[in-house]
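Aim 2 progress update. The chain analyzed this quarter is reproduced below.
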Amino acid sequence: MKQHWRKWLSSTRKILKYILIISGIIFLFLSLLAFTRIPFDVQWWLGTSESKYEFTPDYIVMLGAGGMPEGENLIRLFYMLQAARTYPQSKIILVQSLDTAVSNYMKAELVYHNIDSARIFVENQGTNTRSQALAVAHDFKETLEENVVLVSSPLHMRRAVKVFRKIGFKNVGGEACFAQSVFPDLTYNHSKIGGKRYLPDVSSSMKIRYNFWNYFGIEIGCLRESCALFYYKLNGWI
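Predicted structure tokens:
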């Protein structure tokens, strides 16, 4: 019994050792990658590769995310507002999973910015991209033959457009909600504001202070979206 236990313990240690080594290699690779522009380029590709359109949309469909007010929903509402003003004849569908309170806040935000409430419709069915697209197709059947523009995050855009097309929407494009960059000079004088001499001076390094962390976050999002794309592909949803 003791020998069996020792063998199991030894095997478990070896497995954990290999897991830690592999995890460390992956973390190191992602850390080095975060010092390059590759994460941004992948995000850009996900946001633009399937979203181009040259038609005037009959419907603008915003795929909601999170609560309200909340960062992701607010940036999508910003892009929705710009699209609604650019195409004043289009109808608007706000998709927010199973939450009428949030969707009502979203609608109120658009109305506050002088978007006619008669243009705005709400869809609260569906808990993932596939089920939400099915709900829109069911409740707004005319959209299947109309020109539709989706508003969503860059990481989600490629999958969203492909899902809607797979269901049977004839003309689908997208407005990917890219965050805007900050352009002012954010460097500072390390010693002048009381920085310790024995600590590294990163006052002039935007890559270490901002880009690395931003790109590392994008990498995690890209990995998650890659898994989602693979899962949707296996299901035949895209």
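The chain has a mean pLDDT of 86. The longest helix spans residues 2-33. These observations will guide the mutagenesis experiments scheduled for the next reporting period.
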